[in-house]
Amino acid sequence: LLFPVCNLCGKCRPRDTDLLQPSLNFLYWSLHQTTPCSQQRAVAVLLSNVSLLELLQKVLECTWLWSPPSRPASLSSEDALLCSGWLLVASLLLYQHRYNTEVHQTLSVDLTEVLNTVIFRNKKPILLLVSIMQFLRAVLRQNFSSSLLVIVGQNTAPSAAQPQPSSLQDTALHPLAMQQVFSLVVSLQNLLVHKDLLLSQAVVACLETLVEYLYVKNQDVALHVASQPWHRFLLFTLLSGGQKSFLQPEVLRLMTLFVRYQSSNIISQKEISQIIQEAAEANIAELPEATSHALHLFLSQV
């Protein structure tokens, strides 16, 4: 069934949202809901279809082109298609790397546009931000070196008209620049304050992957980012309101991040003791799966 659906997508235009959106969703779930053996074959089928990849390229580019002055409160059909496109591409990046699948057509993405979408948001729907962050996590994990993806942007192809990286730190973090990193971190912190569950999960995961990437590139920069004083204010903000427990998945994962990178100015021995005390008093069997998993990671890190 993958063959006719791929071929059908390849014959569509990005504006054919009613047909494309469920088709891309079908391809996405075909990758995620099959056996490992069939998964490898499914990835090969999708990546061998040049017309599908060309269509996905056009869909991704529509992210910067479709910007109506006022977006509806609910997810529009155009935004839903963009979500499906970014999620599918993120999955293809993941599985192409895992199985080292042959690539017949590359995708080109402007890194500056991707970062600016998260940094400035511009009234983008939450689900679209989450989808783009999934893509960003995928490229960070692969060190911007996927054979499926060509990264373009102001920091990726220095020329006579473009200044060289302005510092050794920019060179080490290439294709990211220090200013982009700090802007992205601040934006992720601000998005966490919205306390939307789906958004919070995506933001914390993106922050984890970003700091891991920075640590490999430049440990000093990673430790500096992880120890920003604003993180402590962010934790207090997340713990305010109705649910003050430390046993919230996003809070536990943030705490784990700060413990991992030894940010003692963000999380102290007192907070660690409070978390352990809350865990000791909780009924572990009744905790949600996400909370149990986050607690396990935290205690293992401690």
TrEMBL record:
Recorded superkingdom: Eukaryota
Task: Name any Gene Ontology BP term.
Answer: meiosis I
Q: What is this protein's record name?
A: MEI1 protein
Q: Which organism is it from?
A: Molothrus ater
Q: Which gene encodes it?
A: Mei1
